[in-house]
Design goal:
alpha/beta; Rossmann fold; GMP Synthetase, Chain A, domain 3; five-stranded mixed β-sheet; 20 helices; AMP-binding protein
Length: 635
């Protein structure tokens, strides 16, 4: 276990690993180069980081300056981050999928002086906006052949190959200066500016300190003590997002685990089989897709194969229930479980590489039935909750105690409160030490205070004061409660639908219930100030294509919504069946089937895949109004 101290900072974590946990020559990073997985040692990582530090010191970059990264997950990200962090420079990571306008805003708002870019597409994007970014002095392409990209006439930003930074020789004097600067980095200093997704307005730069990050990693490792220096993490969620930065990168820096970088989302399944990770951070959509494919593969053939599959799942469920109740499964159930493991579960696990200890799900709510499905297979899914502003983890499932549909126990050292939405009275406050597995309380807004809360929004004192009240409580904007001692998130406060009769509908849990249908990939609920609930449905493309023998051209037609009555009736069957699980005022009375998913490029969803409710409702207002003009009556 790594030794954390009150003086620990992000750059000190990796140095501690090579002093106390691993030999410098041991493997830290793994990435695929051409067709081969290449291993990079701790020693080489730190040497490259020193070269980058020396380069920027030579350029006069000072403590507190902001440098940017717009690059996919890769060793280059780590070299650059370690290189700038150890000289007190602030990391500003930018989502590669953001528009030119959004990228320019972040560069200018944060005052980025140098920007690392990962591929030709991003390089061209930055070149287009560089003339409007007065503070940007250097663009650093981290890919071969950047010289072939046409440079706009009049460009005044210096372009320097990343190879130039890595090949810089570090003199003895420069090394001493780097060591001095590293020692001068304080836990209270800002480590990173991470810009919020902006579902409700202009993105804000969240100031997270070294202490925010280090303490978050420290307490998470306390809560999940099974993570040790032998783990191999497979990294595919963007490092520009705080969840992957903390749950994978910083955890590995602190504990000395290996980080393997997936090539892409499309190649993730293949990479899992090649790398055979023991731990992965993931999002619910990935788990939902694995769930859907496993169910489809297990039952599609029908007959004996489907019967065996369903029997195995039922056996897994009974075995899980026995274990969760603290009972002995018994010889008969144990024997059945062993057969189910051999015939079904092992084949599903093998597709993940066969070594997974657990997966950590975050970023959105995991449907309860999906979590239970993995539990039945014997694959642990630990859920966590937090925001960019909370570093991010506020709560996470304990490895030995799982309550599906919750996001775990409050982490050590912080307070999490539930505040009444109307009266603003605090209903209850829980800490790690007050945990009681039988405790429950009413729902309200989730608030938090303690070491995980951000320093504030960069250059936005008014917005900071609005988010963090006079008693130091940060208001998350999420609705939740405590259930069986664990935090349970109901929805976002700003998502809440109040129908024409004053009934409150929280969209997320309702949407998750409808997502049980294998026909549905996404669902967007509508009904604020309306008499009944409607929805925009995004179909599961693969299932829809196979069922109706559709060609790719069908999804390229101009009509945004599918009007084929046979397809609509096909969806209607599942909608009506699933609606019986809901209160009458929560049930979908009409729906539209959108031909293609919501898009980041169209501004409909954030880079973290959250639907921008206002944008979607405004953009599809005509289609939404049609659903309320078609004579459908509420119950």
């Amino acid at each position: 276990m790594v030794l954390f101290t009150k003086f620990s900072t992000v750059p000190s974590l990796l140095r501690n690993v090579v002093e106390n946990i691993h030999q410098p020559e041991e493997t830290f990073l793994i990435h695929k180069k051409n067709t081969t997985w290449e291993e990079i040692s701790f020693k080489d990582t730190l040497l490259r980081a020193d070269s980058i530090s020396a380069f920027f010191l030579e350029k006069g970059i000072a403590k507190g300056d902001r440098l940017g990264l717009m690059i996919e997950n890769s060793p280059e990200y780590v070299y650059f981050d370690q290189g700038i962090q150890q000289i007190g420079v602030i990391n500003v990571s930018i989502y590669p999928t953001l528009s030119e306008h959004e990228v320019a805003y972040i560069i200018n708002d944060s005052g980025i002086k140098a920007l690392l870019v990962g591929n030709p597409f991003l390089f061209k994007k930055v070149l287009k906006i560089a003339e409007n970014c007065q503070e940007l002095k250097y663009i650093i392409p981290a890919f071969a052949g950047y010289e072939k990209v046409a440079i706009p006439e009049g460009n005044k930003t210096e372009i320097i190959s990343f190879t130039t930074l890595l090949e810089k020789t570090v003199s003895k004097a420069e090394q001493e200066q780097i060591d001095t600067r590293r020692a001068e980095v304080l836990p209270s200093d800002v480590s990173s500016l991470i810009y919020t997704s902006g579902t409700t307005g202009t993105p804000k730069g969240v100031m997270l300190t070294h202490s925010n990050f280090v303490e978050n990693v420290n307490v998470c490792l306390q809560q999940i003590p099974v993570i040790d220096e032998t783990e191999t993490f497979l990294s595919f969620l963007p490092l520009s997002h705080v969840f992957e930065r903390t749950a994978t990168y910083h955890v590995c820096c602190a504990q000395g685990c290996k980080i393997a970088f997936a090539q892409s989302l499309e190649l993730l399944a293949k990479n899992m089989g090649e790398v055979r990770p023991t731990v992965m951070a993931c999002v619910p959509r990935l788990l939902e897709r694995i769930h859907d494919k496993a169910i489809k593969s297990g039952t599609a053939a029908g007959g004996l194969k489907a019967n065996i599959f369903n029997w195995a799942l039922e056996t897994g469920k009974n075995y899980r229930h026995a274990k969760e109740a603290g009972k002995n499964a018994g010889l008969i159930l144990g024997a059945k479980k062993a057969i189910a493991e051999k015939l079904v579960f092992s084949k599903i696990k093998e597709k993940t590489g066969g070594r997974l200890k657990f997966m950590i799900s975050g970023g959105a709510a995991l449907p309860k039935n999906v979590g239970e499905f993995f539990g039945d297979l014997g694959i642990k899914i630990l859920e966590g909750f937090g925001l960019t502003e909370t570093s991010p983890v506020m709560s996470v499932t304990e490895y030995h105690r799982q309550v599906y549909g919750t996001v775990g126990r409050v982490i050590p050292g912080i307070e999490v409160g539930i505040q009444d939405i109307e009266t603003k009275q605090i209903i209850n406050i829980q800490t790690h030490n007050t945990f009681n597995e039988d405790f429950e309380c009413a729902e309200g807004e989730v608030i938090v205070r303690g070491h995980c809360v951000m320093k504030g929004y960069f250059n936005k004192p008014a917005e900071t004061a609005e988010a963090i009240d006079k008693d130091k409580w940060f208001h998350t904007g999420d609705i939740g409660r405590f259930y069986k001692g664990n935090l349970q998130i109901t929805d976002r406060l700003k998502n809440m639908i109040v129908n024409a009769y004053g009934k409150n509908v929280y969209p997320t849990p309702v949407e998750n219930i409808y997502l049980k249908s294998p026909k549905i990939d996404q669902l967007f609920l509508i009904g604020d100030k309306r008499e009944f609930i409607t929805a925009i449905i995004i179909p599961n493309k693969e299932t829809l294509q196979e069922t109706f023998n559709l060609k790719e051209s069908f999804f390229q037609e101009e009509d945004l919504f599918i009007e084929n009555q046979e397809i609509k009736d096909w969806f209607e069957k599942d909608i009506k069946k699933i609606s019986n699980e809901l209160a009458k005022f929560e049930r979908i009375k009409n729906f539209k089937i959108k031909r293609n998913p919501f898009s980041i490029d169209e501004g409909e969803i954030t880079p973290t895949m959250k639907v921008k409710r206002r944008v979607v409702e405004k953009k599809y207002a005509e289609a939404i109004n049609e659903m309320y003009q078609e004579g459908v009556e509420a119950d």
